[in-house]
Amino acid sequence: MRRRRCQCINDILEENRQIITCKWSRILPDINLFYNFPYNITKSLMIECVNDENDYHNRRIESQFNDDIFKNFYNLQNLKIKNCRVRQLTRHLFRGLNNLRSLSLYNLSLKNSSLIISDGIFDNLLKLEKLFIVNSQIQAIPSKALCRSPNLQILNISSNWLTAVNLGVNDCIRPMEQLIIIDLSLNAIKSIAANDFKSLTNIRQLILSSNNINYFHHASVNRLNIIPSTITNLINLISLNISWNKIDINTPFELHAKYIEILDLSGNYFNTIPVVIINNSINTLIHLKLTNNHIKNLNYTTLVNFSRLETVESYILSNIPRLSRMILSNNSINSIASDAFNKCPRLIEIDLSNNLISHITNDTFLNIGPKITRIILNNNLIELLQWNQLPSTLRTIELSNNLITRIDSAFKSNIKYVKLDSNRMMMLTSEQIPSTAEYLNISHNLLDNLPNATFLNKSLKILDISFNNFNRINYYSFTNNNNNNDGDTSIEIFIEGNPLICSCEMNWLISNDNNYAQVPLISSSPLLLPVTGGGNLRIKDKHLATCKHRIDKRNIPLLKVKDDDLLCNYKQICEPGCICCQYGNCDCKSKCPSGCNCYHNSNYSINIVRCLSLNNTDRSNFSPKDLPMYATNIFLENMHIPIIRSHDFLGRTRLLKLYINSSSVEEIQPLAFNTLPSLMLLDLSGNKLTTLTGDEMYRTNKVTHLFLNSNHLTSLHEKLNREMPLLQYITLHDNKFKNIPEIIDKKIDFAGLSLGQNPYRCDCDNRFRMQSWLIENIKVIADVKDIFCIENITEAFLKNDTTILSAYPPNIGHEIYAVPMLQFIENINKIKMVLKAKQERRRYKLPVKTVTTTTPITLSSSSPVPLINYDAFISYSKKDEKFINDIICRQLESEDYLLCLLHRDCPNYNTDCAIKLHSVCDELIRQIDYSQSLIIVLTKNFLENEWGTLQIKTSHCLFAKNRTKKLIALLGDGIERNELDHELGRILRKNTCIRINDPLFWNLLHSSLPLKINFYNDAGGAIPGHSNNSSQIYSDCYGNIVPSNII
């Protein structure tokens, strides 16, 4: 060895391990090659013998490997030896390589000498996965050489001198289940015995090309007449090449493999596609090569089930004289060679649907033959249609569900049947449509406009333009601007699924009954299209096609569309026959106000003006007097019209419907609508009206619909009935009515009305008519479930005006008590029945005087005062509870004061519940009433939490009204009386206030508190509530005379 040349690099995946490459002229046995090598961290070792002279000389230079030369590389995974010429690989050459995964031996033989492999040489390679012995002139492998390597997956013994298939695994006890790829190509194998691959049960790829096999051959360029059973029984084959043999359709064995993806049968003697032979792999086959065979007859369904076929190569189906139909659908074909179908004189139809074809080459279909009439390419990936790539004899082309965005000129095409649906076309012109086309399907595309004369001078009989983006169907698409058209032309047209707008320009679509519409030849007006003469269009799906109404946006089937539904927008128009159009002021000239949208129908009987949510400039400049004089429907929404003045709508004699919604209308002057003799519908909802007297509606005697909901109305005068005698429908929900309005109470022939969401009183007094009227007219009320009676308990306590003294759920908003009116009426009836029954039971007893529900209840001194159980009720914040207990309560209770604490002794009070429901608890009111005094500890926590609840505020305000009791406010740090809310400030101004941090705090508090209840006990009396004789305490509280009601 001349010198040692090695390179070390770190492995990419394992940086702490190394890959070593060494190049020497030859290997000698008396030299320690690997002295000081990093044995433990070496992952891969590559040895190459290189000589400066030519390769012929190198093959004569002999190397020699000692036994155990690699034993120290116990972590080695990959070993490669190249161009080191030896006579024999000894038994213990690879001993110690227990972790070796890959062994590659290239060009190891001497010139004209075979390489000898010793028995047991691979016994220590228990983890070996890949073995390559290439171009080393080995003649045989020991019979059990690889039995100790059960993990072997790839075996390559190509380019050697093997004459038989002996892979060193035939006599193994266990089959080589992991071995999947074997390469025996470029050897001298002449025959294959039946058991050569018996133990190789999972082979997926077997390469035997370039041998001399005459009985069995998997590889090409051999002499096989049949496919041997040895190969056909390999069930895991993926790739098989048996090209350029003499195999024909009579080969007796079929391939049992179920996963073959690549099969090369080219250069054999097959006269048809051998489907029977490859039947098990039809669904997995990707590449099938059949060129240079003798195929003459082919059934049109032969390839129909080849679901993964990707390529159709040149001449694969050419020169088949009897082939008439070819179905290659449901494959994965992505390309077709230009000569794939050449010279098939009887071929009529080709079906290539459901593949992955993205383009058609120039010569793919042009040279098929003179009889081709139909090509099917549905469900592919084609983007461009070029008519000149199709045969002149073609009559039908189907390209549904592709990606077509562009179509070339159809100048010389003779096609009659064209399917281009479900593509991506955005435009279509006359030049792109063959003049011979009789059926054209361009549905489910992205078309939104058809230019004039698109279908002029065509042979169309059926046209499908459904499910595109057309807003209107232009009748000039079927004619030209001069209205020239073939009078005999009749086209059946499908237009379903387009977002059509009901435009007056499409009145020709609905001009006739049934399903016929005529393309006009003469236009007397640019908008009103006559329906006489011209070729017929037969709209076949009028019952399915719809158009969207411009105003209410509803979709109307064309079969039900009326002329009044077809509207065109305008900025300024003059009606036909108008004689003053040239003048500025002209009633028959309609000008749309700035910012508004205006529409008219084809005969100008409908004139609609919509002014919705105008911008600030247009809104400030708007005046009702600017509205067109001939308007029939006016919509004013989200405007700013605080006052509707008299004569704002002067002279609109055609006005049928007037909508003034959500426009901040607060007042309507008398005679505001008196010059609208045709008015039938008036919508004033969503405004700020508080009352209507009837003078506003003078001479509106044709109104049948009046919408007044969502205002602030509290009353409606009966005079409205006289001004609107035909009124049938009225909406009054979401107003401020507390009782039934007079207009409703005095009129009995309404067809429909709404009354919900009004604060009707929960009262049975005769002055409230709602309860009795509701039952009598329930059938005409649209929102009975929304009618509630409501009592505001807070307001009732403050004003002493209520019939309900307790709160029950549900509690809605600020209204403490709310109940469905029907439920209220039912409950009242039940109460009456119960009271009547009790009276019957106690008819022999002394009757008890009661207060009726309509009698106002006051809190004056005539009411009985409850028993006194506590010296003081202390109201405080839950967050200050520890401070209250330690500083105030403990001291007072040690002095024998009887105390009731808000968060300790009132189990029914819950802050969270009170905040959520805004309810008033009777128990809390009673607890405070049982106390001689109320001590309120005012802190920031109390003001932010407890005082914000209706329960605390209401009970404390009630206590403050009782001048016979004491209310004391203890002010915490940071509390200023002038910064408190109005109600609390009023309480503090009339009662005692003590600061907690005052040095004289306890003196001031003791002097403010009333005498303790125990004082009476000390004087010889009984404690209230603990004795059967309570007369003395009553006398102390009320004086010598005790009220009889208390007794």
UniProtKB/TrEMBL annotation:
MF terms in GO: signaling receptor activity
Key words of the record: Glycoprotein, Leucine-rich repeat, Membrane, Receptor, Repeat, Signal, Transmembrane, Transmembrane helix
Chief localization: membrane
SUPFAM superfamilies: L domain-like, Toll/Interleukin receptor TIR domain
Residues spanning the membrane: none
Residue ranges of domain TIR in the record: 868-1009
InterPro entries: Leu-rich_rpt, Leu-rich_rpt_typical-subtyp, LRR_dom_sf, TIR_dom, Toll_tir_struct_dom_sf
Bilayer topology annotation: Single-pass membrane protein
Gene Ontology biological-process entries: signal transduction
Compartmental location: Membrane
GO cellular component term, pick one: plasma membrane
Keyword Endoplasmic reticulum listed: no
Family the entry assigns: Belongs to the Toll-like receptor family.
Protein name: TIR domain-containing protein
Provenance organism: Dracunculus medinensis
